[in-house]
Design brief:
single chain; 260 residues; alpha+beta; 2 domains; six-stranded antiparallel beta sheet
Length: 260
């Protein structure tokens, strides 16, 4: 049976006003006013599907208990819609699935979310979501500093050399306890690796913290998001460095063959 399980987030949407929903390559998101008369925004990690429906009542039974904080965000357990979307993506794309090239991740990493407002609700299937709040409208504005979808800053980096090539190591400066807590909403970058080539440094591999089937994992992912190796719990630089060095070696051989 489908069940809506409440998720408490630090941003509370106004329960009277309706949101603005932008579906665009520019910056898809839910834009709304908050209970404390500020402005909020929900953005999505690997958005797969979105729909907006009229109505004040959730279309699913929920787990709310009297005396607890009333949620406005929900995750749907045993979602039929998520299974339908998986069947569609698997049948049409299979191994060429856009997000990480492994369509089966839809069943382990993606969720069906519901965002409830006064007279409508927004349903989304995505790998995760993040929330922002500001005193002025966030509509079409750039993501705020520290947003998990942004690249890690390159203001403080370590470097190592492998196969005569230099690689930058950009580690997330947030406390690990904060990253573990935030990973319940969307993936968190632990480390980004940027290879220095021809005077430029480009991120080509990332160590990502997330939850899979309720278990905390770290996954090393390539430039297009394909998972290279998975670790239970929190992985460290020493765990993934051999895989990064292997990648650097492959880059070195390709460049050598090109005469660089």
């Amino acid at each position: 049976m489908e069940l809506a399980k409440g998720i408490i987030i630090p941003v509370a949407a106004d329960f009277v006003l309706s949101p603005d929903v932008l579906y665009s390559d520019e910056l898809t998101g839910i834009y709304f006013q908050t209970e404390d008369e500020q402005y909020g925004r929900i953005t999505f990690e690997n958005l797969d599907a979105l729909k907006i429906c009229r109505g004040e009542n959730l279309p699913f039974p929920d787990d709310f208990e009297a005396g607890h904080e009333y949620p406005w965000v929900y995750k749907i357990e045993n979602s039929k819609w998520l299974k339908e979307r998986f069947d569609y993506e698997n049948g049409n794309y299979g191994s060429s699935y856009e997000f990480g090239c492994d369509v089966n991740e839809m069943l382990t990493d993606f969720s069906h979310y519901v965002f409830k407002f006064h007279d409508q609700f927004v349903e989304v299937i995505a790998r995760g979501f993040w929330f922002e709040q500001d005193k002025t409208s966030l509509f079409k504005r750039e993501l705020q500093v520290g947003h998990p979808f942004l690249s890690l800053p390159d203001s403080s980096v370590e470097k190592f050399v492998s196969h005569n090539l230099t690689c930058q190591v950009r580690a997330n400066s947030k406390p690990i306890e904060k990253l573990i807590s935030d990973a319940k909403f969307c993936s968190q970058k632990l480390i980004e690796f940027a290879l220095e080539l021809d005077g430029k440094a480009s991120v080509n591999n990332s160590l990502i913290l997330s939850y899979r089937n309720g278990e905390l994992i770290s996954s090393l992912r390539g430039y297009l998001g394909k998972e290279i190796i998975k670790f239970n719990g929190i992985a460290k630089l020493t765990d993934v460095k051999p895989y990064i060095e292997k990648y650097i070696g492959e880059v070195y051989e390709r460049r050598k063959g090109m005469g660089k």
